[in-house]
Amino acid sequence: MTELARRDSGRFTAVDGGQRWRFEGALTMDAAAHALAESRGLPLPSSGVVDFAAMTHADSAALAVMIALKRRGIAEGRPVEIAGVPATLSSLAVVYGVESLLGN
Length: 104
Fold this sequence. Notes:
Distance between the termini: 31 Å
Mean pLDDT: 90
CATH architecture: 2-Layer Sandwich
CATH topology: Transcription Regulator spoIIAA
Largest sheet: 4 strands, mixed
CATH superfamily: STAS domain
Order of helices and strands: HEEHEHEHH
Number of domains: 1
Low-confidence stretches: none
Helix content: 40-55%
Number of strands: 4
């Protein structure tokens, strides 16, 4: 990842005492692997909610990250609920046929 991509990429943070995660910033092809790798350092949120309402920019890589988080939840026996997905990204999930993978 380039330094510019790293600086512009978003990140997951645990909020509400670890009850949920919030993603802030951009989640694009250039930054997705970095954001996902950093998320592995956080315990899954206790409520299972991962909120993307503060995401500033996204492309199809954001869908891949969301699906990876859902898979992590399954692997750890802790359901993950994806919240705050922008309408444009929800539409893209329908086009790709993966909207059911994001379902809660």
